[in-house]
Amino acid sequence: MTATRGTAAAGAGAQDPGQAISFGEVAKHGRGWLPLIGLNALIGSGVTLALPTVLGRSVDSIVAGTGYTRWLIVAAALIGLGIAASIVDAFAGAACVADTTAWLRHRLVRHVVRGGPDGSRNLETGDLVTRVSANATDAAQAGPAAVTAIAAIAPPLGSLVLLAVIDVWLAVAFFGGVLLVILVLWTFAKRTADVSLAYQETQGRIAALLSESLTGIRTIQSAGTTEREERRILSLLPELHRNGVVTWRILARSGAQAAVVGPLVLVAVLAVGGLQLVAGHVTAGELFAASQYAVLGAGLGSLTGVLGELARAKAGVRRSAEVIAIDSVAHGTLALPPGTGQLTFDGVSVVAGENVLLDNVNLDLPGGATVAVVGPSGAGKSVLAAVAARLRDPSTGQVSLDGVPLPAVSRQVLRTAVGCAFERPQLVGRTVGEAIDPHAVSPISTLAAARATHAHDFVSRLPDGYFTSLRKAPMSGGERQRLGLARAWSARRLLVLDDATSSLDTATERQISRTLVEDRHHRTRLIVTHRPATAARADLVIWLDHGRVRAIAPHADLWQNTSYRAIFG
Q1: For 209, phi and psi rounded to 5 degrees?
Q2: Considering the entire predicted model, what is its pTM?
Q3: How does DSSP classify residue 282?
Q4: Among 357, 361, 359, residue whose Cα is nearest residue 346
Q5: Residues of the chain with pLDDT under 50
Q6: Residue 442 and residue 445: Cα distance in Å, rounded?
Q7: Do 362 and 345 touch, CB atoms closer than 8 A?
Q8: Which residues contact 304 (CB under 8 A, 6 or more apart)?
């Protein structure tokens, strides 16, 4: 019987598959704010188009010496309306970006977390952080930038129509100049999209290198390689600089071109308008209005900033989509029947690239037993533990707990039934108590787990005990391991310990091993270990070698084999 990642076993429920996210989906998420942004953009465009005509009428009224007061009042009202629309637009735009950023970050984090260790294996930690933080903010600009870009088209189009109403030759002169501006903008948009993506990708690679170095900062300092590591992290700065320079060159070139084309539009309209004024085809006020409409057409060049935002948003969406594409670990809807953690491996193999990490493993481990997993480095011990805890799925085969395939078990039931502790536990929570019991079920259960794993011995000596801030609590490697053990202790069916006692002193390790062997919860304990004493206390020992089960028997029986003894040195 086989099962592969993303394939639900019998009884599996509907899942939340990793689906690629699109620019349109991100833009539409701001639909609560986008209508307001669009409405204000229309109001702003209307004011922009109406104001030159009103001012032109004012000029004609002043020349005529009568009726100009009402036009000036209308102009003042339009200016006030435009200011109000700009203020509302700024607020709505900021709120839309903030709301979309929060939504996108929540979705990104959910896919990273639910994808498990396998899902994000191809994305480095620092790069992931950059995508969730900076790139998500860039992507969230999609909606407002798109609306702004569309709205910016209205004034030039309206100007063209209104110029045609005033005089058709004015419209012809205006149209020729606007075509040049559009060509400049199209070239800018085409060039800046790729550069924006390259810039964001380089930022992500620098963040990935920095995160990697911070993880091993003690090793770097002890090896005296800090300067070399600094050079390695900053080696990408020239590439980042090149991308930035190219971006600014494109922006400067497009700005310069727009700066040249803009006045040409204005000069062309004024020249034609002057001739028409002399010929008596237009009034002074209409010429003034025409000049303002020409300025609006030349103002298309200011769209370079908006197009730059669109390019960055498009790049941010693309990088976010790669995270969204991470498949969430599929969980079913089944509960577990009564049992004590019988663990079954049926033809389980795990392949990573060309490497076979586990090869056709078949095991039937009795419920409630203490089972040690031993083998040389690279034998597949941690992979076996991860598959047993469903931290990764097998490439082929199936793992069952008390007769139910793990993919068919609901997420909540599985994580209540199975607990894991690791060699280097990552402690999560605000306080030491929360690190032991993230769900804060009860102080009694927290205390019981701490006592069982001998974490209470040092936690009780902390300034605020279990309420001590986790970041400020001084802890050795062994103490961190004890907290990791305490966090996993509440598991009801299966306790998986992946070398989780390696940093403990001999006396504490012996005490915890005795607690595990004498566990009154009647659950299965799968313990990856390098210590013969731990293996000796187990009911069974799984001897792994190059991903295969070489033997499964009590430690005393296997000890007769010289190859087995060589594992422990």
Answers
A1: -65, -40
A2: 0.67
A3: S
A4: 361
A5: 1-18
A6: 5
A7: yes
A8: 185, 188, 251, 254, 255, 258
